[in-house]
Amino acid sequence: MYLFLDVANVHDQFVEGSSSATYEVFNPATDESVGKINCARETEVDAAVAAARAAFEPWAATPAAKRAALLNKFADLIDANNAELVKAEVKAMGQPATVAGGFIVPATAQTFRYYAGWADKIEGQAFPAEGDRLNIVQYEPIGVCAGIGPWNVTISTLSWKVAPALAAGNTVLYKTSEKSPFSVLVLARLVKEAGFPAGVFNIISGDGVTGALLASHMDIDKISFTGSGPSGRKIIDAAAKSNMKKVTLELGGKSPSLVFEDADIESALTGNSQGFLFNSSQVCIAASRLFVQKSIADKFIDGLKARFQSLDGAVGDPNSPNTFIGPLADKAQLERVLGYIETGKSEAKLLVGGERKGDKGSFVQPTIFLNPARDARIYKEEIFGPVLSVLTFETEEEAVKLANDTSYGLSATVYTGNTARAIRVASKIKAGTVGVNAPFLPSMGSPFGGYKQSGSGRELGKEGLMAYLQAKSISISLAG
Ligand code: NAD
Ligand code: MN
């Protein structure tokens, strides 16, 4: 099978890239090859940018209600094609079908509906005349916007960028990860089916080289990136060295979970086992550093070990309805996670797991390490896999200090039965999202993003829309 990259909807068809660069994708549950994608290079990127540029003014001038209608239609098509999208995602990155079909696909459609609702509610401001001046502010789209995403919640990441960008009147180019390209190519077909005008919503396939071409392009006005910290740095650098395009970054995390002695223990156990292991812990907000209050630590850690052991039985074929934990996304991710586990064995006490599961596919046992040193790699670095570090604390003050002992700041969770403490601790944690008594769950209306090195800017909610608009202040002389 050979897949085609969608250079631009001007062609109204999928076109094959001009370069010989391809990327082969393997099913991480079976190790079988499941297809190749073309990687867009300069010719394709330039063509897509030119199409988006040509489409920009007409799209920005399209009545908001019409933009909204197209976004809603696209959302309906996403739901109608749930099964095909799930199949595409499962074979590329091994996400359990129940997760993809039950959560990711519906959430993607919902994001498009949510931002369709914003399209005709973009307001300006007017101020009482000052002297002989009337000041008004209007919000205008930015222009041609690029999005680059990772492979862990592929189409949902696309929706967080593309839906607000289009609602606000921008045109877009989206490149997803080379590790999970197929679901986005299904969406490319739906773009056409929904009837978006040519050049408004472009999808290109490719790897890091393609991404770098977008980041350094002279005619892209904004780039929104979700992925690893090191790639995020390269994006800022490329933006600075090219046309100073605006940059939004959603990067990684090493999020803390704090369990206080007054917590509901069952919820805390569920959140730190099932919650943490969701999507094989390939989740940017996964709470991978767990801190338990000493007075309950022995009992809690025993309970957690039992939960991890029983969830080991839910690791398996992502197509099975009984599977909760699929494989890691690919061989590279498997090697990376196993590398951390090996390092961890000399940095901490292995409590449970610690091995690859089986000899086929990229499966890993849910793993817990106890008491790593504060400079241990497994404690400091994002692993993006089912490897949890557990430490203990005595006081609330110490807990907050440990939670903030990281260069990241994407998320945190606090488990306590004391509402005042929950709010106190949530307010002291340097992170953009905090869950209380359950892992944080993104919701359409609430801004999502990171403190510190977890990124800059926010997605979702009104802030996610404003990220695709720029303010223009107009001062009108009333004299004469
Ligand atoms: P990655 O940085 O390797 O790749 C992300 C994307 O960037 C891919 O599409 C890739 O092709 C592209 N890319 C690679 N090099 C590039 C370059 N030099 N210039 C431009 N684009 C380039 O990350 P990944 O392994 O695909 O994803 C995992 C990471 O994503 C984790 O760190 C995770 O925490 C993060 N993530 C963050 C969020 C969030 O919202 N904060 C959500 C999901 C994942
Ligand atoms: Mn096309």
From TrEMBL:
Record key words, sorted: Oxidoreductase
Residue ranges of every copy of the Aldehyde dehydrogenase domain listed in the record: 14-474
PROSITE patterns recorded: ALDEHYDE_DEHYDR_GLU
Molecular function terms from GO: aldehyde dehydrogenase (NAD+) activity
Oxidoreductase recorded as keyword: yes
Catalyzed chemical reaction(s): an aldehyde + NAD(+) + H2O = a carboxylate + NADH + 2 H(+)
Annotated protein name in UniProt: aldehyde dehydrogenase (NAD(+))
Enzyme nomenclature, EC number: 1.2.1.3
Catalytic residues (UniProt): 250
Family the UniProt entry places it in: Belongs to the aldehyde dehydrogenase family.
GO annotation terms (biological process): carboxylic acid biosynthetic process
